[in-house]
Amino acid sequence: xxxxxxxxxxxxxxxxxxLALAGCSTPGTSAVNTQPTIPPAAQGETVRLTYWAWITxxxxxxxxxxxxxxxxxxxVSWIPGATDGGYQKLYSSLAAGAGPDLAQVELxxxxxxxxxxxxxDLTRYGVEQYENRFDETLWGQVSFADGVYGxxxxxxxxxxYYRPDLFEEAGAEIPTSWVQxxxxxxxxxxxxxxxxxxxxxxxxxFTAHAMQAGATWFQAEEDSWVINMSDEATxxxxxxxxxxxxEGLVTTQHEPYSPGWFAAASNDxxxxxxxxxxxxxxxxxxxxxxxxxxVAPAPRWEHGYGSSTIGGSTSAVMANCQHPAEALEFAVxxxxxxxxxxxxIEHSGIGWxxxxxxxxxxxxxxxxxxxxxxxNTEVFEPAAYDQNPDWQWWPIVQxxxxxxxxxxxxxxxxxxxxxxxxxxxxxxxxxxxxxxxxIRRADR
Amino acid sequence: MKASAEKxxxxxxxxxxxxxFLFTFVMPILMAISQSFTMIEREGLFGEEGISTSFAxxxxxxxxxxxxxxxASIGRMFLFGIVQVPIMITLATVLALMLESASARWPGFFRxxxxxxxxxxGVLATILWSFLYVPGxxxxxxxxxxWFGLELDFLSSGTVLWSIANIVTWSYTGYNMLIIIAQxxxxxxxxxEAARVDGAGPLRTALTIQLPxxxxxxxxxxxxxxxxxxxxxxxxxxLQQVSPAIDSQYTPNLSAYTTAFQYNDYTVAAAQAVLIxxxxxxxxxxxxxxxNRSSR
Lengths: 444, 296
Known about the structure:
Chain A is an alpha/beta fold and 444 residues long. Chain A has helices spanning 6-22, 58-68, 86-95, 110-115, 136-142, 164-169, 178-190, 203-212, 232-246, 259-266, 279-283, 324-336, 338-348, 375-384, 397-409, 417-434, and strands at residues 47-53, 72-78, 102-106, 143-144, 147-148, 151-162, 196-197, 218-220, 225-227, 250-251, 272-276, 294-297, 309-317, 352-353, 439-441.
């Protein structure tokens, strides 16, 4: 018998491997939205849909629907949250030509999934008829270039959680503008209390502040993306927080909701938290905090809007879905029908409802934790409609946030936030080009 | 007939291993190499007007190396390795020699005690240590502040690398110690006897008998540690949540992970992964060459 030498064996293996690889196509090369639409299933046929999401107990909510709609049955599978593993699974399944019919995709991640042709354009299945059930701003964030790529599920309108007792101790007024907010911070600092926390590692909070000030970092035009990250509104915000951080009014050591932050908050060292509506559940994790906190509208800039938003998801119909019409029908019910919304709030703990007509039954009435304040209707409901309507997400949001976070970290070494924003804009343009996407700077 | 059955038998017995080895080891490596030479081009705002792939030559490698943060992360690991690996190997050797010396008390108990941290998964070890690092939670930081007025900051940009080195040393010293002990145990007893007859004390025995004879174990543990250093991932990724100084490209692996799974840019990530493997290979190879030469 002829003996196979080690070298020959290795060559053989390499050759076979390369052959096998030639059979794989690169993810995202088949364009689902140019293929013919798939007609709804025939009468009497039962359709089974799979739905991947990381919110808890979504199956319980889907079962309410399953009971009422025997012909469209929805099975939910849990995936890890967003970039903690969920998206990786979705991307891999898309590359393999398989995966779920529906998936939870964050508002800001939709364009990223569009880059791999991962989402069905719902206008091809008549989504326009449902537009009036959803919040305008959110609808704007799921619409790109004449298409609609997801059904808004929830959002995170921003308000200010605060401790009236600490403000009183420092003799500070409850601020309604950011300038007053800074003044309050100076009074609090004398008592050794931090006004708030400014996360240097997470770009999303700064982004929300810029959004509120009226910035629009990206605009999708017909042939190209237009970037405007270092506009006056954004640089104003950066300058403002440069000063606030330099004066030591806020802590940069403890990111909101990190273990150190919880410890500081329960030690009465944090007087306020400008954060999203979903922060209420997290805040209740501060030990001994019951009854101490209240909620007020977010401080305002001289220009811009009353609030902004952090976070928010959609139900997206995925490219390999075999029953898009039915998937759309379920997604619309889930996110706009009072039964769906109440179920999502009660069982899955979603953020702010995407349907302005129904903020959710559990969100009405006074809250024991916030000392009897009806904070949802008082603060977050108006905040949800005082949003920057021009804001649009772009295909590399996650990367821009990381770049921004990496630049912000250098604040500790003496670099300013203003420099960071300008550098992040440069880096973002570079990434667009490397991905083969056309981009240009806005005219000023 | 019988001969062919004899020839088949090893392959049949090897098959379960070979199949797993091919599909979970060889294939992914080949795939990473082939992806690192692929380029994706898009037209339109999202590529809705067409996406094409082509052979990229070394474009992905150029992008990876042009990324200052990625190159800096490799440099950071050099610094880490030059300090941490010698400390850990020295510590492991000293512990091993002491436990194997004639005057050691309860060597079994201490061996187990030193080895114990290795049984704690790296992720848990990092969480445990992070509670000792975070001000407001850490008894060390708080005591130093309130008793001595010292401002300790284990998580600043200057110190966090050594805080990670501390976790790694804590985790792996016992493991390396055990490998060295295994080699010490294989030293024949008559060598010790001869040394004693010649009047060698414990220190002399350690320096001229034990150390030269455990050389292979030292080389092995050092090479493992060099490779381990370049693959540092879980510790910095977890400490990221408490230390603003750790960015998304703090270590080479963290950088490749971020590129692949946060940015969905698999081709550049593949190039980064291949580069990390190359550097690890080069370093181990150089180290082996150096130790071989000096032993001649």
